[in-house]
Amino acid sequence: QVQLVESGGGLVQPGGSLRLSCAASGSIFSLYHMAWFRTAPGKQRDMVARILSSGQTTYADSVKGRFTISRDNAKNQVYLQMDNLTPEDTAVYYCNANRQSAIVGTGYWGQGTQVTVSS
User: Fold this and answer.
1) Predicted pLDDT at 1
2) I need a labelling partner for 66 at 20 to 30 A (CA). Which of 4, 58, 60, 80 fits?
3) What's the pLDDT band for 26 if we cut at 50, 70, 90?
4) How far apart (Å, rounded) are the C-alpha atoms in residues 115 and 96?
């Protein structure tokens, strides 16, 4: 079992930045592949960024060059640095953990944190 708790969401103006954090507990964090997903109003949940236990990262095309995912295994945390935000980034952001490197979207989920980009 893995428990995930997101934080860091909020209201930001277009062009601004936010840093999301996800604290994990309950298992060996370093063994898990971690990801951030988001659900925008009226849309399905999509993967934003993923970082494998090896440190390899992947990003959705829509956030490449603007978002950075990282992890701190000593602190059992994964982060999502979001820069140059646009209104299209408005969504509930979810932290995800799983053990299958080839399968995305399974495993454990946090409760989500709201990010709103608006002037």
Assistant:
1) 85
2) 4
3) confident
4) 17
